[in-house]
Amino acid sequence: MTTKELWYKYKETNDMESKKELIEKYVPLVKVVAGRMFNFYGSKIEYDDLVGFGVLGLIDSIERFDLHKNIKFETYAQIRIKGAIIDNIRKLDWIPRSLRKKSKDVQKAIFELENKLGYNPSNEQISEYLHISLKEVENMLSDITTFNVVSLEDFLNENGEYFFEVKEDDKDTPERVYEKDEIKKILVDTIDALPEKEKLIISLYYYEELTYKEIGHILKLSESRISQIHSRVLIKIKNCLIKSGINSNDLR
């Protein structure tokens, strides 16, 4: 039986055997997504756990997928697989309280310095504001990158989005559509306004799906430096959302 025939048999008759075959067919897709995310979260969680979370997203994708919509299943499924992984990572609550505090302190410092100075503050200015050494600021930015990715992606995922890919839903109210459009506009405007190096890092990480090591090799920078820059960009995006009043309470 072809994949197309499997899909139609499952959707038209709710045949569980066909559903099982579809799950088995698309498990490699879960492993690809989990593998990419393991490059980032690997020090905090086992690869098999990421795959397990991703399979939940795959099953949800198969159940919800509409054969009559003009979208490839693989594209649709990747969004839900990644969303399921992020959601389950959040539920594990493995991020230490001290790391959450560091993230809030740095985010607040950047937010207040931006308002005062009118531009994105340097690490030196952040260190002066927080009364800590430059090295401590750099270490904090490296340490909180994972938290910022989970925090921001979780926020966008809870609002029915995948990072940098804001989708519309048939059930959205006009207010919800407007909010999604605003989020997308802020993301696009913020990224467009980034310095070229920061913009390139975001592009290589999220679109080309390269690791910090690979990006560092291209830009001749250390992995820790790439991590610091990435963290600052995520904080910048979060602060832009807060300034716009878009679900700021959900940015944790």
TrEMBL record:
<dbReference type="GO" id="GO:0016987">
    <property type="term" value="F:sigma factor activity"/>
</dbReference>
<dbReference type="InterPro" id="IPR000943">
    <property type="entry name" value="RNA_pol_sigma70"/>
</dbReference>
<dbReference type="InterPro" id="IPR014284">
    <property type="entry name" value="RNA_pol_sigma-70_dom"/>
</dbReference>
<dbReference type="InterPro" id="IPR013325">
    <property type="entry name" value="RNA_pol_sigma_r2"/>
</dbReference>
<dbReference type="GO" id="GO:0003677">
    <property type="term" value="F:DNA binding"/>
</dbReference>
<dbReference type="GO" id="GO:0003899">
    <property type="term" value="F:DNA-directed RNA polymerase activity"/>
</dbReference>
<protein>
    <submittedName>
        <fullName>FliA/WhiG family RNA polymerase sigma factor</fullName>
    </submittedName>
</protein>
<dbReference type="Pfam" id="PF04539">
    <property type="entry name" value="Sigma70_r3"/>
</dbReference>
<dbReference type="InterPro" id="IPR013324">
    <property type="entry name" value="RNA_pol_sigma_r3/r4-like"/>
</dbReference>
<keyword id="KW-0804">Transcription</keyword>
<dbReference type="InterPro" id="IPR007627">
    <property type="entry name" value="RNA_pol_sigma70_r2"/>
</dbReference>
<dbReference type="GO" id="GO:0006352">
    <property type="term" value="P:DNA-templated transcription initiation"/>
</dbReference>
<feature type="domain" description="RNA polymerase sigma-70">
    <location>
        <begin position="211"/>
        <end position="237"/>
    </location>
</feature>
<dbReference type="Pfam" id="PF04542">
    <property type="entry name" value="Sigma70_r2"/>
</dbReference>
<keyword id="KW-0238">DNA-binding</keyword>
<keyword id="KW-0805">Transcription regulation</keyword>
<dbReference type="InterPro" id="IPR007624">
    <property type="entry name" value="RNA_pol_sigma70_r3"/>
</dbReference>
<dbReference type="Pfam" id="PF04545">
    <property type="entry name" value="Sigma70_r4"/>
</dbReference>
<dbReference type="InterPro" id="IPR012845">
    <property type="entry name" value="RNA_pol_sigma_FliA_WhiG"/>
</dbReference>
<dbReference type="InterPro" id="IPR007630">
    <property type="entry name" value="RNA_pol_sigma70_r4"/>
</dbReference>
<keyword id="KW-0731">Sigma factor</keyword>
